[in-house]
Amino acid sequence: MKNFDEKFDFRDARNLSMCMDFYELTMSQCYFNSDAKDKIVSFDLFYRKNPDNGGYAVFAGLEEIIGFIQNLHFSDEDIAYLRSLHTFSEPFLDYLRHFIFTGDVYAVKEGTPVFPYEPLIRVRARLIEAQILETAMLLVVNHQTLIATKAKRIVRAAQGRAIMEFGARRAHNFDAANYGARAAYISGAAGTATTYAGQKFDIPVLGTMAHSFIQSFDSEYEAFLAYAKTFPNSCTVLLDTYDTLRSGLPNAIRLAKEYLEPNGYRLAGVRIDSGDMAYLSKKIREALNTNGMNDTKIVVSNSLDEYLIQSLISQGAQIDSMGVGENLVCSKSTPVFGGVYKLSSVMENGEMIPKIKVSENIEKVTNPGFKKLYRIYDKESGKAIADLMTLYEEQIDSEKDLTIYHQMNTWKNKTLKGGSYTLRDLLEPIFIDGKLVYDVPKLQEIRSYSESEFAKLWDEVLRFEFPQVYYVDLSERLLKLKLSMLEDIKHVK
User: Fold this and answer.
1) What is the CATH number of the domain that holds 259?
2) 162 phi/psi in degrees, rounded to 5
3) What mean pLDDT do residues 226-250 have?
4) Domain identity same for 375 and 458
5) Residue 385 pLDDT
6) Which of 5-9, 34-38, 394-398 comes out lowest in average pLDDT?
7) Do 101 and 111 meet the contact criterion of CB atoms below 8 Å apart?
8) Residue 5 lies in a domain
9) pLDDT mean over 334-359
10) Parent domain of 136
């Protein structure tokens, strides 16, 4: 049995190496045939648009990616299946049989607020090795970052009231429920109803009773009493099985007065799962206070999202905590994150040569080259004022003026006075030469770090509606490189 005082082993025992798009293998066979398999390349994983038209995303999933890379291998069963497809050569299958990742991976820390177009993960590796990571990294980042972002919006809307993740039964299978709970916890959820997530990630687990529990007894009060006798120190009862104000609430007060209080306990809470939650919560609070139960908490659930929570609070709803299900764990309003994984450079004669993807859709034009990513902070306020992509070899002296540029337009620029700002390199080394060099933090540490980083963002960036667009800019050298490559492509025939 796991000792929960020990550092959690985050690796998934399953061999998920074959969870990839088939074209990763067909391309790799071509690379193998052309002796390009050992060519060193770099890829950037980034996204193009914030969920829900918001001002940010919350990067999550790095821990699962680390576990995947550590366990990346092709078993005899995998090789036998690939052979049965009559698509791949025996030398290539033998290469896969002995496959080991030997490259470098850099990434922003989990819980970091991130923004469109900046590299969240940078891979530098042999071509086949880098290619084979594509699907796994995208599916992990796209899912967990999406849910962490939605959870952050919901937690912020609650204005300090506890948010409980209740979404397992609406999630898209087991992993989505468990890792969705993990992502929600990073962004401030108080806990989860998913027991396995509690066991695997050491997240607080929460839950009391369903309507079926109450229906299974001859009366509502008998159900309440049975629960109170079993859990007297943490008794929360569900009020809306029959009639919230005329049955559930009077029976809850009766339970407190006839059983809990005479035996030295207090009714911990009441929950409503339907009806007009603003109106009902006010009526419930009034009745509870009248009966000396000011400490009894009111919990609500039922299709909540950040906008409904905001509305309830503005109406003066008397709510202490909220259970949020499908709108959180499925990010129902924006169910796709849209991260992509694009080639950015190829090594030739010992030099990383930049590559660019061009499209008629300007938002799909990539930022070329082997890059660094910095976050720039205002020295006086400590607030983040921009993120900056530079070429890897560039050196920035924060004591000198720095001009940062829009990703496509040189006339859109901003100059920061030397000495007025500080820089932080956001891309931290995770794997070097295939070896894990990153000290994987515990989930609580990721959560605390995320909270501290969000405190460094301006409120205008965090607005739900029409947020201020956070600057993600390029250095002058990188912008000139990008524009020159685009100009060169115009003349290619």
Assistant:
1) 3.20.20.70
2) -70, 135
3) 98
4) yes
5) 97
6) 5-9
7) no
8) no
9) 95
10) 22-147+335-490
Do 196 and 173 form a contact (C-beta atoms < 8 A)?
no
Mean pLDDT (the chain, rounded): 95
Q: Report d(CA 208, CA 236) in Å as an integer.
A: 7
**Which amino acid makes up residue 452?**
S
457 token code pair: 């963002």
Residues 299 and 339 in one domain: no
62-76 tens-digit pLDDT = 999 999 999 999 999
CATH number at residue 38: 3.20.140.10
- Domains in the chain, number: 2
Three-class HEC string of the chain: CCCCCCCCCCCCCCCCCCCCCHHHHHHHHHHHHCCCCCCEEEEEEECCCCHHHCCCEECCCHHHHHHHHHCCCCCHHHHHHHHHCCCCCHHHHHHHHCCCCCCEEEECCCCCEECCCCCCEEEEEEHHHHHHCHHHHHHHHHHHHHHHHHHHHHHHHHCCCEEEECCHHHCCCHHHHHHHHHHHHHCCCCEECCHHHHHHHCCCECCCCCHHHHHCCCCHHHHHHHHHHHCHHHCEEECCCCCHHHHHHHHHHHHHHHHHHHHCCCCCEEEECCCCHHHHHHHHHHHHHHCCCCCCEEEECCCCCHHHHHHHHHCCCCCCEEEECHHHHCCCCCCCCCCEEEEEEEEECCEEEECCCCCCCHHHCCCCCCEEEEEEEECCCCCEEEEEEEECCCCCCCCCCEEEECCCCCCCEEEECCCCEEEEECCEEEEECCEECCCCCCHHHHHHHHHHHHCCCCHHHHCCCCCCCCCEEECHHHHHHHHHHHHHHHCCC
Q: What is the pLDDT of residue 2?
A: 41
pLDDT band at 492 (very low <50, low <70, confident <90, very high): low
> Which token pair is 344?
């950015």
The overall pTM is greater than 0.70: yes
Q: Are 389 and 476 in contact (CB under 8 A)?
A: no
| pLDDT tens-digit series, residues 95-152 | 999 999 999 999 999 999 999 999 999 999 999 999 999 999 999 999 999 999 999 9
Q: Does the pLDDT of residue 317 top 50, yes or no?
A: yes
Q: ∠ at Cα 182 (177, 183), nearest 5°?
A: 100
Q: Is residue 170 part of a domain?
A: no
